[in-house]
Amino acid sequence: MTSRRKVIQTLGLAGATAILPINTFATTMAKQKMIHQVYFWLHDVADTQEFLTQAVPMLGKCPTVGKFIAGVPAETEKREVVDHSWQVCCTAFFDSLEDQLAYQTEPLHLEFIEKYSKMWKTVKVYDIAI
Length: 130
Known about the structure:
The chain is α+β, with helices and mostly antiparallel strands. It has six helices and four strands. The protein has a four-stranded antiparallel β-sheet with strand order 2-3-1-4. It is globular and about 50 Å long.
């Protein structure tokens, strides 16, 4: 009897969820905090310090960025699962997906790309919902 009641409750909850308006999910997504991590592989490793101290700080000044940190690979032991191949990483924290979307078209972000993109050969972005 108890398991039958749980099945009925579960089905009722699933049915109610299925008919919620789509904009409810969109509103939830917009409020989703996130971390935006960008890894750079530079053409010339000798440019690492310049890129880290002059280029990357521009991104942290964008108005929708909350916290911002940047760095280079830690000198941890070489292991198969650790990737030390990149030169610079920056991490930006956003209060919502909307803030991250605004960052993509922020003039300072676009200026960074225009001015410094010639320095990197590869960029990888990892966005993390928190």
